[in-house]
Amino acid sequence: MAVQVETSDAGNKLKAKDFATNQDVRWCPGCGDYSILKQVQTVFADLGLNKDKVAVISGIGCSSRFPYYMETYGMHSIHGRAPAFACGLKMSNPELSVWVITGDGDGFSIGGNHMLHVLRRNFDLNILVFNNQIYGLTKGQYSPTSEVNKRTKSTPMGSLDYPVNPGAFAMGCSATFVARSMDRDPKHLKEMLHRSYEHKGTSFLEIYQNCNIFNDGAFFAFTEKDKKMDNCVFLEHNQPLVFGAEQNMGVRIDGYKPTVVTLNNGYSKGDLWIHDEKDVFKASMLTRFFDDPSVEGHLPRPFGVIYSEDRATYEDKMFGQLDDARSKKGEGDLDKMIAGSRTWEIA
Asked: Residues 96, 88: contact at Cβ < 8 Å?
């Protein structure tokens, strides 16, 4: 479990509105951010978090307006640098529940370096990545997660860049918790927010978020009722990978290659890939399930907890190191430390 943040008086049950500020929410009508904001406020209330023990840190972008709308401590920081601010905050006050809000542009372009280091260091904080595959705040340029040949104001003939895969990026950085959800499935999103909070270490939750102004429908293959079940596999620990509107499709491993099979057509659930949140190799494969959903026989997109690992947090190791130094050398003297152990006298 994560650090047990002080909660509110049990006799005064909090509601989502208790985490809402008096600020007008300024996103475009229909933006997926509204749904995410509502679910975060609801989950914070469900958890009974003490508002004075929570901090929401953001960078720059549409998603980064988040701290203004959360009745907690917060900071609208510098482009791409929210993880750095969050790490410093966590080291100075480890009892805080720290949440980083970032977007695909903020987090994987100018902020890619900071994202890498917070994930490998494993501070006990939570990262929510709002991925809409576009730059919304600056009016529709292609982003690090935009698909190849994306036509935008900055790429009128189509983008040439191969996109960043957020889940694969996180796994490559040795993240200890990687999950995916979507703005249009509130129940699933709340479940993933709860799981993120419960994880002790850096939780990385990618959220598919629709930008209805500049990239409307980017994820409709995964979020709309008539397509969702044929294109998504919802992961459950120790359960087979089953999907499809009639739950008659599955994923099995043929050698080292995942393939889609039809159940009751020579295959049963016993033949399928069994999801294991602790298996780093299978998790890495799951993050590569990025087939085009319009192609017959495509692999479904995984949603849920892809990977979860128990590993010591950076701040716990740091405080342990400090305690060890004090036990061996005492409290120390700042002036002596600055002077160092080597001195010279000039004749």
From this structure: no
pLDDT > 90: what percent of the chain?
89
Q: What is the set of domains in the chain, with CATH numbers?
A: 16-218 (3.40.50.970)
Read off the pLDDT of residues 55-103 as tens digits, 9 standing for 90 and up. 999 999 999 999 999 999 999 999 999 999 999 999 999 999 999 999 9
Answer whether 20's CB lies under 8 Å from 40's CB: no
d(CA 257, CA 281): 12
Structure tokens at 104: 């695909």
Whole-angstrom Cα distance, residue 115 to residue 80?
Answer: 8
Residues 6+ apart with CB under 8 A from 56: 66, 67, 70, 72, 73, 74, 75, 99, 101
- Cβ burial of 174 (10 Å; 0-12, 13-18, 19+) is middle
